[in-house]
Design a protein that fits this description.
This protein has helices spanning 11-22, 40-52, 62-69, 87-98, 118-129, 149-153, 165-175, 181-190, 195-203, 205-223, 227-238, 241-261, 265-282, 287-294, and strands at 29-33, 75-78, 106-110, 135-141, 156-159. With 298 residues, the chain is of the alpha/beta class. Bound molecules: zinc ion.
Length: 298
């Protein structure tokens, strides 16, 4: 690699970006799409650094410090604050990107652009149709189907995927050479294919223990024939929204991995049961009923 990205995985995507930079063929707009917590926004932000820092994303110069803190005058950042992106904000972006700047580029970082209101998206589309010179829009989304197709087609698409357990184990071993191999195996197993989650778990032993417990619970419940015990487990999930959500996600992950090893119909059926349970629970259907139904898992 040419640049000091310091990122776990995504070599293919980073090499593509390096190629674009080296050949002077940067797109006006990049759209990084894929599941949440796999590192899309990290890549977006590092690309901003790489474009702005005069010294190979040194991380130390005044420019790098400003980009990191969000105070760099030619780097505009709109991280996901769980609010929609409104037309006023898009107009502000356009106004600022057409002003003359001090840097080689104007960089606009937009996280989770499915947050744009229809008016904002239409206004933004006009900007992409006639992009301001030397401006690079770097956008992310986990919901590409919700994005105006004309915005997608005017962007250079970079796809991100979930990582396999084997791959996560390998990169975690490289990144954390002093860590206990068993801990790394557990983190790789429990991070649901997401590097962001893997790093969280490496840094937070309590979270790791909590997830490990859920993982073992799922394996036990899949194995036991004792319906009384399964129902007792539902009791414990009734009190705790977050645990219930986490349990279902871990269960889905375990089932998908089991399906990869052994393509049995049981796992296909159970995966669809868990997915149905997740969507029922979002619709305020009787929680106990949904979970108890899920526990008939033969
Ligand atoms: Zn720097």
């Amino acid at each position: 690699m040419i640049y000091n990205w310091n990122i776990i995985g995504h070599e293919k995507q980073l090499k593509m970006l390096e190629g674009d930079i080296a050949s002077g063929n940067l797109a006006h707009a990049y759209l990084l799409c894929g599941p949440s917590h796999v590192g899309k926004y990290t890549v977006a932000k590092k690309l901003a650094h790489t474009l702005q820092c005069p010294n190979n994303f040194c991380g130390k110069c005044a420019t790098c410090t400003q980009v990191r803190k969000g105070s760099h005058i030619d780097t505009m950042e709109y991280p996901n604050n769980r609010e929609s992106i409104k037309i006023e904000q898009v107009r502000e972006v356009v106004a600022r990107s057409t002003m003359s700047g001090q840097s080689a580029y104007k960089v606009v970082l937009l996280q989770s652009i499915e947050r744009m209101t229809p008016e904002a998206a239409n206004c933004f589309l006009k900007t992409l149709e006639e992009p301001p010179a030397k401006t690079v829009f770097i956008m992310t989304t986990s919901h590409v189907r919700e994005i105006l197709p004309t915005i997608v087609s005017r962007s250079r698409i970079m796809r991100f995927h979930l990582f396999s357990i084997e791959y996560l184990t390998k990169v975690l071993r490289e990144q954390f050479p002093d860590s206990d191999p068993e801990e790394i195996d557990n983190v790789a197993k429990l991070s649901l294919g997401k590097t962001g989650k893997a790093l969280d778990l490496m840094n937070e032993p309590d979270k790791l223990a909590y997830n490990l417990k859920l993982y073992k619970d799922v394996l036990y419940l899949l194995d036991t024939d004792n319906i009384v015990e399964r129902f007792r487990y539902v009791e414990g999930l009734m009190e705790d929204d977050r645990k219930r959500r986490d349990f279902l996600n871990v269960m889905l992950h375990v089932l998908r991995n089991k399906l990869l090893v052994d393509g049995s119909d049981r796992f296909i059926r159970l995966i669809s049961n868990v997915e149905n349970a997740k969507s029922f629970l979002k619709q305020n259907v009787n929680t106990r009923l949904v979970l108890e139904n899920l526990m008939f898992m033969n």
